[in-house]
Amino acid sequence: MSNENRPNIGEDYIRFHRAMTRGLAVSIQNINEFLKIGAVEVLYRDGFLKYVQCFSSVSHGHHLVEDEKIFPYFRDKLPEVPYERLISEHNILKGGLQEINTGLDNLRAGNDDLNSLKLLKSGFDKIDQIWYPHIEIENTQLYGRVGSLKIDPEEMIRLQKELVEFFQEHTGPEYLVGPFVLYNLSPEDRAIAAQGLPDMVMKQLIPIEWKDKWAPMQPFLLE
Length: 223
What we know:
mainly alpha
């Protein structure tokens, strides 16, 4: 929500980028630590695999919703945004995600940890190389300007709903993805993001019904 308490998907997506940025940094940090010992630590294995799985799923869904929904919607409203460059960079990011997914599959299959971690590192490095300038363009030239556009609040709410539903259709499982996004946000950002969620999600699903499934990721998440 904006300072004027009006819906603003631009602010929502800048906040979402912060969650993804932390997910990228935490994943790389832990991969580098595991590479030092040549394997994923047994104690953290389940949580680490779930965390990286969520990063991959969330990244895929986020870029897809931008390519198929957000960019087409804003193309005539903010024509100066370099949409083709952003879409091209999404294809590079997709290549990194493919390596990450292969590395995950190998780790789940019990294949050689060291080579699987090297594959994960290669995929994450590809993403890391372009991630920061990529989201800088999106945040400043697109999302940071949404609030200045004359979009009716009801239309903004309709668009928010459409984007959320599309994202949920292309990510999952929700019992991992939801906590991953929320707990890669600072408490302040998390409180704002939670305002847009049904009470049942924050009071029943995440802390109770889903907790056993996402709890292994807690060492990698914020409190």
